[in-house]
User: What shape does this take?
Amino acid sequence: MNTPTAYTRSAIVLHWLVALTILCAFPLGVYMHELPLSPNKLQLYSYHKWLGISALLLVAIRLGWRLGHRPPPLLPGMPRWQEIAAHAIHHSLYLLMLAVPLSGWLMSSALGFSVVWFGVIPLPDLIGKDKQLGELLKDVHATLNFTMLALVLVHAAAAIKHHLFERDGTLARMLPFIKQESKT
Amino acid sequence: MKRLLLALLMSPLAVGSVSAAEFNAVLGDKSAVNFVSKQMGVPVEGKFKKFAAQISFDTNKPEKGRAQIEIELASIDAGNSDANDEAKGKAWFNIREFPTAKFVSGGIKSVGNGRYEAAGQMTIKGKTRDVVAPFNARLDGGNLVIDGAIPILRLQYGIGDGAWADTGTVADEVQVRFHFTLAATAKK
Ligand code: HEM
Ligand code: HEM
Assistant: This one.
């Protein structure tokens, strides 16, 4: 494989599609689970699951695509620790964006609330009904989510810092319409 | 081979002698009343842990069969404690005023192949409606096992008033599924 020098259009589209679905599913999850039981709550739970499963599907496509396509190396001139941190966070994010929706699906299966995607496509239950396990998976889903949130914040902060302070092309190569005007 | 032949010869006798009996002792620990509702298009199962059932049924004389099932609504398990509390409240079963639901049937007919239909009245929340509950009956180790369902349109009984009346969220149709194991009593 040649070493690419830029993210391909597919990589960029998939990055932002996944980011968008996750960034919609997350606040919806936090909001809905505080609500008292009502028809509205049931609706929001369903929308959350539909979004979450869509995220899972997009992540699967993204991972499949990524396995066949090397990303460009990080821009030169970064301290070693930053390179290590960037790679570690990228790999952890790949893991979490898979584990978060999977844990949600597992939780729903265990609690006896199957998923019918967009109210049309019934998905199989991943595990049998088991209330205790379901309660545990609720905590797992929440913990994975808040871990992912922390990493995404660091990840986004780093990208913005590169744009504003190092003034390099890191953010611009994932977000092409903001072209970095400086030297690199 | 000999044993098989013997078994084959004996089996109609055995079945004949058992099914001649009337079954009328409901075995509580081998019986269950569940229900399936549809929430946002997703079938969700729940159960009633406490119920009292008096059933007498003779597969040779189904028309003489009768059944009375009384369900203690406070024993509902709708999946989680929020849902249980909600179900007991005014909008749903209003159990303070209407603690039980009752199904009474005095007319059972055979529709063939071990399948039957029990016509009767369902009373919930003070409202009584005619319903037909299809079920099947089979012999199992000397007992009669009955599996069937009472179809209910919840809004006919005012179950799930107000905001919950929207059937796009919780469907109108609810299946109350019953599974009863009846022991035989000797024929007099
Ligand atoms: C990328 C996808 C997803 C994200 C970002 C996400 C995010 C969240 C968040 C932040 C919460 C609130 C956790 C809390 O504060 O306790 C939550 C709750 C929940 N999620 Fe997800 N989720 C995703 C996918 C899914 C999927 C695919 C399902 C099911 C098929 C699901 C089912 C649930 C359920 C049922 C709850 C509520 C748990 C409760 O009642 O406490 N989620 N989600
Ligand atoms: C849920 C949200 C997000 C997730 C899960 C996520 C995940 C990832 C992953 C795994 C990569 C590495 C791609 C690869 O090299 O294979 C990446 C790259 C990148 N992400 Fe995100 N991201 C998210 C949100 C954001 C946000 C909000 C920003 C910007 C503010 C951002 C900016 C970038 C940039 C600039 C890169 C390219 C880094 C480089 O040049 O090596 N991401 N993202």
Summary: Residues A 22, 25-26, 29-30, 33, 45, 48-49, 52-53, 55-56, 100-101, 104-105, 107-108, 115, 138, 141-142, 145 surround protoporphyrin IX containing FE (ligand 1) (CB under 6 Å).
